Amino acid sequence: MLYAFLALSPILLALAAMVVRRIHLSASRALLLSLLLTVVLALSVWQMEPSALAAFGLLGVCKALEVFLIIFGAILFLNMLRRCGYMEAIQRSFSRVSPDRRVQAILIAWLFGAFIEGTAGYGTPAALAAPLLVALGFPPVAACIVCLIANSTPVPFAAAGAPITAMVTSIADEIASNPQYVAQYGLSYEEFLSAATQLTTLFLGVGGILVPLMLIGVFLFLYGEKGRRFRDFVEILPFGLFAGAAFSLPYYLISVMGGHEFPSILGAVIGLALSVTAAAKGFLVPKHIWRFPDDPAEDPVRNIDQARAMPAWKGWLPYACVGLFLFISRVDAFGLKSLLQSVTVGWSGLFGVESCSYSFQPLWSPGLLPFGIFAVILGLISGIGVKDVGRVCLGSFFQLLKVFSALVFGVAMVQIMLNSGVNSSGMDSMLMVAAQALADLTGSAFPVISPLIGVLGAFISGSCTVSCVMFTSLQFNTALLIGVDPLYTCALQCAGGALGNMICINNVVSVAATTGAAGEEGRIISVNLVPVAIYVALVLAVALVVMY
To answer: Which of 12, 305, 500, 505 measures 20 to 30 Å from 531, CA to CA?
Structure first.
């Protein structure tokens, strides 16, 4: 057990450093400490050669840069839209659909938030959708709560699939070379990614049908009129189920047919189109218009000079171009896929370590194409000038510095722990030792706690991606030891990481700051614990049916 404790100590240190109130370090600082501890343990206890340690550490840095490129491109594209005035047109388009606050919450928090999550992710949906709800007349705390609840189902496929890509990338070597896994299951990297995508959308998609009802139920309980709350909830029940299914069903089907880049983006596009049309036509929408007691007489977003305002179709056009490019470039029949994948950079046998190899296809990364290049083109054709385009690029990079450092430290730590079996001591890798201890402790019940590990990781780190980077190798190896297909525990890890976004500290602080609800973070987290618990139970129910 001593070696198991030492193997887990870098992860435990990261958890303690981020959670304990007297310490309370940021994810980047906590993971830096964990990385340093991992290096010390790898050299002293596991007796890794310095060349192997350096090789696998550098491998982790490169894998982190690969994921960061996707995040940076997505955020850059979003910031360019805001700078060029396209986001204002999108916001106005929602204010005209329905005056009912329940309908607005579903359309903006659930569906618009899902679309922003699919294209940008990393806290931007709540930070964009919540201020829009406040502008329409929502109390700040209500806007924060509903946007954070909604920012769950689409999360694994944020920024065209960055979190689930990071998850599978973190165990790519295990998938390819773990003897037990290759002998029993034998999925390639691409096959594992595809299967994990489908399982994750299944686990989250069933509960996703109910997410609109969860967020409406919570804010009606907090802000509804006593004696009418249940009636107000029942009135919106048909439209809530319709909007939930309008996203969740395409979300799952697209994961089966279109890969990991598309579920959240296209699911949201389809869900938005169906739900906005239904709301505009009055289909399933309650006749009774629900408003907050102190609602303003008019929606402030409506009070804009229409002659000078950008039309709604133009506001959505850049996103349409991104979606079209992603579709064309990911379908073999168009011939662009092979061209983009033809450019490869990497190495093999770094520092003389034969098992350390890496390859990257830069043109295939959605961070470069379409997000990054399209963002620059958009800025130039919008006439904001080369200097302003440069300022947006630089500002986007500095906006993500903490995410960048957390990813680098976290992925490097995991790669060293994962490959610490390349040593002169004869010991298994740190993660294998930790996995054996967890397997002995939990036995066949381990899958039940898999999503809770994901939730915890996202809560403390502020990111589903970082949660997956920290814990997926542990989930993978523990599953092998207890005789469970690691595909299931990894998918449960990703689903749990997504649900942790409802309560993760970074997201809560960010959305509270952008809506004027600073100081209410504790209340927001305590309220959202209930939908997290309900959703985790739904995920486990679906997973147990599928597995057994």
So the answer is: 12
- Per-residue tokens: 533: 């618990």
If you count DSSP H runs as helices and E runs as strands, how many of each does the chain have, helices first? Answer: 26, 2
Please give the DSSP secondary-structure letter assigned to residue 76.
Answer: H
Contact 350, 52 (CB under 8 A): no
pLDDT of res. 307? 47
Among left, alpha and beta (phi > 0; psi -120 to 50; other), residue 285 is: beta
Which helix (H) or strand (E) segment holds residue 416: the answer is: helix 401-419
pLDDT at position 279 is 95
Residue type, 268: A
Radius of gyration of the chain (CA): 23
Q: Which residue type sits at 149?
A: I
From the number of C-beta atoms within 10 Å of its C-beta (0-12, 13-18, 19+), residue 26 rates as: middle
CB 90 within 8 A of CB 315: yes
Strand positions, DSSP E, 234-340: none
Residue 10 gets which letter from DSSP? H
- What does pTM read for this prediction? 0.78
Structure tokens at 24: 């309370």
Q: What tokens does 23 get?
A: 């310490």
**Separation of alpha carbons 136 and 128, rounded Å:** 13
Can you say whether residue 290 is alpha, beta or left, with left for phi > 0 and alpha for psi between -120 and 50 degrees?
beta
What the block records as the tokens of 417 is: 């722990």
For 274, the 3-state DSSP assignment is helix
Residues 108, 128: Cα–Cα separation, whole Å:
10
Lowest mean pLDDT among 59-63, 367-371, 380-384, 517-521: 517-521
Query: How many angstroms separate the CA atoms of 453 and 467, rounded?
Result: 8
- Show Cβ contacts of residue 404 under 8 Å, excluding neighbours closer than 6 positions: 64, 68
Q: Which residue has the tokens 């997290």?
A: 532
Strand partners, 360: 345
DSSP labels, 176-238: HH-HHHHHHT---HHHHHHHHHHHHHHHHHHHHTTHHHHHHHHHHHHHSPTTTHHHHHHHHHH
